[in-house]
Amino acid sequence: MGAYSYYGRREYKNIWDSHIYHFKSLVVRFGVGLIYSEKVDSGTHIYGGARIGINANYVTPVYYSDKTESREQDYYVTPCVGGEYLLSQHFGLGGEAQLQFTFFGNPSYINTPEYFPISDTKTVFKTNALIFVRWYFQ
Predict the structure, then answer these.
(1) Would you state the pLDDT for residue 1?
(2) How far apart are alpha carbons 53 and 75 in whole angstroms?
(3) For residue 126, what is the DSSP state?
(4) C-beta of residue 40 within 8 angstroms of C-beta of residue 48
(5) Under a CB-based contact definition with an 8 Å cutoff, are residues 86 and 102 in contact?
(6) Cβ contact 21:10 at 8 Å
(7) Does pTM top 0.90 for this prediction?
(8) Engineering a disulfide at 110: which of 22, 69, 127, 138 sits with its beta carbon 3.0 to 4.6 angstroms away?
(9) Exposure class string for 76-115: b at 16+ Cβ within 10 A, else e
(10) On the CB side of 39, how many CA atoms lie within 13 Å of its CA?
(11) 3-class DSSP assignment, residue 1
């Protein structure tokens, strides 16, 4: 189980004029994993399972008179397989392969101008590979 938030700024140039618009973005992600682990030998584990969760996205303009805010909830399902080798009692090195399916929600807008899209749902899948180092407190 895990959660994190991201706060950043993104810029884009509107096709109707030459201004650059600045936005504040906040993404909160929460998920859980259902993982089965199998011990191969004394220091090696392999695992497989799925991670599921939700992303909550909030976008607010910063330097622009249009105060349109958007909110969107996206859901994801990620089958995964991986392995880890324990180099010592407290230190492990591993890798994981993922195939993530993300179901993007329909964004809701506050103070919506006429040219904003009202319906923008989509589904995306992507692959992901991880290499990780873990420190165990035992």
Answers:
(1) 44
(2) 6
(3) E
(4) no
(5) no
(6) no
(7) no
(8) 69
(9) bebebebbbebeeeeebebebebeeebebbebebeeeeee
(10) 4
(11) coil
Gyration radius of the chain over CA positions: 20
Instruction: Supply 106's token pair.
Output: 């329909």
The rounded distance, in Å, linking the Cα atoms of 46 and 135 is 17
Residue with tokens 């929600």: 105
Burial class of residue 18, CB neighbours in 10 A (0-12, 13-18, 19+):
exposed
What is the amino acid identity at position 17?
A: D
Residues of the chain predicted below pLDDT 50:
1-5
Closest CA to 118 of 106, 133, 127: 106
Q: Are 52 and 31 in contact (CB under 8 A)?
A: yes
Centroid of chain to Cα 11: 20
CA dihedral 111, 116, 120, 124 (to 10 degrees): -110
Angle at 44 between CA 43 and CA 46, to 5 degrees: 155
Placement of tokens 């929460």 in the chain: 30
Residue 102 three-state SS: strand
Beta bridge partners of 91: 135
